[in-house]
Amino acid sequence: MFNKNNNKLLLCLTLFPGIAMADSLNQANTAWILTATALVLFMTIPGLSLFYAGLVRSKNVLSILMQCFAITCLVSILWLAGVYSFIFAEGGDLQQFIGGASKAFLPDLGTESLTGNIPESVYFMFQMTFAIITPALIVGAFAERMKFSAMLWFSGLWLCLVYMPICHWIWGGGWLTKLGVMDFAGGIVIHINAGIASLVAALVLGKRKGFPTTPMPPHNMTMVVTGAGMLWVGWYGFNAGSALTADGRAGMAMIVTHIGASCGALTWMFIEWKRFGKPSVLGIVTGMVAGLGTITPASGFVGPAGAMVIGVTAGTVCFFATQYVKRTLKIDDSLDVFPVHGIGGITGSLLTGVFAASNLGGLGLAEGVTISHQVGVQALAILVTILWSSLFSYLILKAVDLGIGLRVTVDEEVQGLDQVLHEETGYLDL
Amino acid sequence: MKLITAIIKPFKMDDVREALSEIGVAGVTATEVKGFGRQKGHTELYRGAEYVVDFLPKVKLEIAVADDVVDKAVKTIVDAANTGKIGDGKIFVTTLEQVIRIRTGETGEDAI
Asked: Closest Cα of chain A to B17: distance in Å?
């Protein structure tokens, strides 16, 4: 049965390549998106988990790993229960704002169901891995002081009230899709969204005890660099997978992703070298993450030269944003999620409108669209996301605080979340 | 009998151990410790945030010796552990009342 269909497909592809591409299964694309799905999950567990876990103090290492792991499980279930459906199923009269409920628990999913020319099951899984990493990014903002129960409530509600509508507007055929916003792999949907929520969470929860006078250096830099390396590798799936095809656009997305990361990393390293006298390991890996976050919205639209400009801009802007938020404003966004992902996402999403233009080496704007028009659309989408994400993140945090309280007590915070919340420790002393 | 307690730079531990072996000192206990003296600490910088690290890693050696060996042992340690730079460490010599070898029950200098 399978082979017979396979032969038919092959025949169709040979005779009518253009027509056959539309609605029949493309196995090359399917194979690549299956692979890319695994790569994007690899970014959260263990990539982001290790990156964040190394950055906190040893008494909180398990709490971070636990939060990322639990978010992965929780988001997966909510995704199946309806979040996927309300983003990607047809929403009828409300389609501009939200999708429909018809795909909740995937009642009609069979092995034959397709989205484009890949199985819907694969599309479902691929998109799910993006929904997983977004709330996991926010963990860095409230690290070392949030109750685990409050974190679960916040992450679940945030997925439904913030990620779900914004993702629908931009990727699910909502009103921003119709305006022509360009967000290839999630600069707005993921990085700005999570970055803004992080800033709000840091402000609502307040500083960790002792910040900024008590030293809170990373407890394991080896873990940080290991996690950062995994993020870079996983990001190939994130950006090149977002093409949803195994073709030249995916290849181009992979090149610009890599160049953006390299330029961001080197830029951050050289700025630190010049200002502080030494090129630091944490600096180079943070610059890499900034470069990756910033190139994300642009990855399927710009060329390698545009990627270099975006990467260097990312390293510079995110570096100074980090100094400003932490040193000048003294906001305890503990692992600098807002300055790296939020500011990086905003920078990249605006520059996408510029460097996508074919005369600047990009793959081209939509027909008849000028750079200024596209940048305007990008700015609108960014502004709407900032407003929605900050308002609802704030409301959710306040509601959870009223219900069960957001923070552990000061005593518990000093003792460390691993012992207090999980009755375990990351490292055994003799 | 005396107990020599020497706080030295970690990378000098092997040199000191070899030098002590050459003069016939048979036993040393080593512990990784942290502390500060005149050398003070150093600073570390993470994403622009500066942290002062007050306590520096050192190695503490404890050596029990007979009275007639003390001066030679101390000189050996000083020679081997000296780099001429600040932070080379210190040696404390204290009187030792009793030494017992657990396996045989020997006491005093026989047990050293």
From this structure: 25
B-chain residues near A218 (CB < 8 A): 46
Q: Interface pTM (ipTM) of the complex? A: 0.72
Q: What phi and psi, each to the nearest 5 degrees, are found at residue B34?
A: -130, 145
The DSSP-derived string for B43-101 is EEEETTEEEEE--EEEEEEEEEE-GGGHHHHHHHHHHHH--SSTT-EEEEEEE----B-
pTM of the full predicted structure? 0.86
Q: By the 8 A CB rule, do A297 and A188 touch?
A: yes
Tell me which residues of chain B have a C-beta less than 8 Å from any C-beta of chain A: 44-49, 51-53
- A314 in Cβ contact with A260 (< 8 Å): yes
Residues of B in contact with A212 (CB under 8 A): 49
CB-closest option in A212, A215, A286 to B47: A286
Indicate the residue of A215, A272, A286 with minimum beta-carbon distance to B51. A215
Q: Report A:260-319 residues touching B (Cβ under 8 A).
A: 272, 275-276, 278, 280, 282-283, 286
A360's tokens: 């600047």
Per-residue pLDDT of chain A in tens (430 residues, 90 and over written 9):
344 444 444 444 444 444 444 579 999 999 999 999 999 999 999 999 999 999 999 999 999 999 999 999 999 999 999 999 999 999 999 999 999 999 999 999 999 999 999 999 999 999 999 999 999 999 999 999 999 999 999 999 999 999 999 999 999 999 999 999 999 999 999 999 999 999 999 999 999 999 988 889 999 999 999 999 999 999 999 999 999 999 999 999 999 999 999 999 999 999 999 999 999 999 999 999 999 999 999 999 999 999 999 999 999 999 999 999 999 999 999 999 999 999 999 999 999 999 999 999 999 999 999 999 999 999 999 999 999 999 999 999 999 999 999 999 999 999 999 999 999 999 987 4
Q: Do A218 and B46 count as a contact with CB atoms less than 8 A apart?
A: yes
Positive or negative: CA dihedral A100, A106, A108, A113 = positive
- Out of B45, B51, B53, whose CB is closest to A280? B45
| Minimal C-alpha gap between B53 and chain A (Å) | 9
